[in-house]
Amino acid sequence: MSPIEQLISNFQELVAQVPEIVQPFIIMLAGAIPFIDGEGAAVIGIAGGLHPIFVAVAAATGNFLCVLLVVAVTSRTRTAIVDRRPSPVGLSGGAGARSSALGESFQETAATKPKSKGRQRFNRWLVLFGVPGASILGPLAIPTQITSAILVSGGTPRRWVLLWQAIAIVIWTTIGTVAAWATLTFVVEVS
């Protein structure tokens, strides 16, 4: 038995020790973790010997629930920040007034901070392809949770973000599930 087959066999035994009622929650939790997302959780479940459709549904559900939470928190945060801005008329005083020196200082700091390669790539895709393209291509650069936070904080409507993130999660989880299943079935020949 090759080392890969042994590893998969050990993982299948570990998953088999967990009660069946708990298995979908393990896959859902794995899907909710950034950088693992639905596709990584699908690989974990398939390697654990679970049925591919069962794994895909659990992984996508966990990933989407986390994205839903991120969108809700980011949207509330954005609303709170936008509501605190001073009015464009220049009225002083009141709850929303700030000193212009503080605002200018913040803008200078934000402008000088370098962006990561993943964020630069994502921004290029957003400009080229809009929200649908950035949502679908986003997981190639950064996790879906970060993608959704960027889109909502930039002012994209929550429903639009959730729709396209759901589509992207289904696409990428399906690709991860099929790739893991095909690899284990045809390449490694584990049943």
Automatic annotation (TrEMBL):
Where is the region Disordered?
Answer: 89-117
Q: Which residues cross the membrane?
A: 21-47, 53-75, 125-142, 162-188
For this UniProt record, the keywords arranged alphabetically read as follows:
Membrane, Transmembrane, Transmembrane helix
What is the name attached to this protein's record? Small multidrug efflux protein
Organism, as annotated = Micromonospora zhanjiangensis
Taxonomy, top ranks, is: Bacteria, Bacillati, Actinomycetota, Actinomycetes, Micromonosporales
